Amino acid sequence: MRKPIVLLSCVLLVGLWSACESNTSTPQRIPNEAARGSHAVPIEQFLSEAPTGQYLVSDSRNDKPLLYLVFAMDSGKVLSAKVSGFPAGSPYKESSLCSFCPSDHPGYGKALRGLRLLEELRPGRRGWIGGQMLDPTLGYRYLADLEQGNGEDLSIVLRIGSQRRVLWLRKVQAP
After folding, report:
1. Is the dihedral of CA 77, 82, 87, 89 positive or negative?
2. Which of 93, 86, 57, 65 is nearest to 175 (CA)?
3. Residue 25 — pLDDT band, cuts 50, 70, 90?
4. Which fold has domain 40-172?
């Protein structure tokens, strides 16, 4: 009875060994340009200069326009963004208030226009990272990273718990 078990074990070991040996291939390196994507500027330059101008923020799930943001960098190389207006089709209006903002937030009950929604972004390996973004509709504070897109476009990757959401930012001319 032991011979069939020993024989079966040997066959399994030889099969496993040959599968492992045939699976050893030389790893292929991805060129730096492909690893970074098709960015307009090198990541070092993207991090050395704050995004300038006005950006239209759209939800990546339905491409619905939400608001306009303008970025600013302080002397400590910390990046933030304020609401500069509302496009046609936005759920917000000029009279919209931050009524769902947390009561301890400095913008609670104030107008959304001019409110700093994105703050505390610092240079990181893949973009501006470690920031926070306030969702004025629900009052949530998301962890936020700002990454390069194609051309002058950007994306904000928002995380809260295990949830992940992406907002697109397209550079536009000031209305």
Report:
1. positive
2. 86
3. very low
4. Lipocalin (2.40.128)
